[in-house]
Amino acid sequence: MPESFKKTSLGGLLIRIGGYILLALGGVATLAPFYFMFVFATHQRSEIFGFPPPTWFGEHFWTNYQILVQKIPFWRAYWNNLYLALMTTIPSLFFCSLAGYAFAMYEFRWRERLFGVVMATLLVPAILNLIPFYLLIYQVGWINQPKALWVPAMAGAVGIFMMRQYILSSIPKELIDAARIDGCSEFQIYWRIVLPLIRPALGTLGLITFIGSWNRFADVNVIMRTQETKTLPVVLRTLQGATDVEWGAIMAGTALLVLPLLLAFALAARQLMEGLTAGAVKS
């Protein structure tokens, strides 16, 4: 075997091993905060700030849970989280896919300009929209009402863009024309043909929208006025006082808050990967 070939093979092997090591370190760095969150959820405040800090699960999760339900309306806030996430995600899947289908398959006047306006909304940081958003909600009388949070989010620009790009890359116009020739109405084409074919993109958009809605904080804190209407991330913040912070209870609440996200990711992981890689390889 030539010496140059041996050196090339050895160099490639070392690069591959180095890549695996970097990926492993990145995985540890990503998972470590989640691990310690679950560990600290089972320890008291004094143990969390001890030295060395705990690295394995303790026996005080039930104590931390009791602090949660005594000091805040935990399960009411949890329901608010679930309600907001579902009421944002389900309509978003329908309206974003419908709009994306229209932008991808229909020719109408000012289509490109209208799509450009939709994309231009992404240039404005969300935090800059907070005050105008509050003034608008105040004018329509929706302060402290959950619909103020999910109605404006039913058709986001990111979702419309994702659906349009996926439909353009995966659905030929000849298929739509054939459905029209067979007598399908325009909505039947969307419902019976387009939706089943864009299921991976719907899974991706659904997961992204659900996680984003589940973690909303700033607008909920501004629009919702009472503890009974606020979501869990905002309510958990009230446990952080100036001098008394129940870190064990906060970690327990955060761990319970994260569990549905982990479950949603596990269920939609395949659709997420398919949706993100769609169009990356030419057929």
Automatic annotation (TrEMBL):
Keywords: Cell membrane, Membrane, Transmembrane, Transmembrane helix, Transport. The keyword Lipid biosynthesis does not apply. It is a multi-pass membrane protein. This is Sugar ABC transporter permease. The lineage of its organism: Bacteria, Thermotogati, Deinococcota, Deinococci, Thermales. The chain crosses the membrane at residues 20-41, 82-103, 115-137, 149-168, 189-211, 247-269. Residues 78-268 form the ABC transmembrane type-1 domain. GO terms for cellular component: plasma membrane. Belongs to the binding-protein-dependent transport system permease family. It is found in: Cell membrane. GO terms for biological process: transmembrane transport. PROSITE patterns: ABC_TM1.
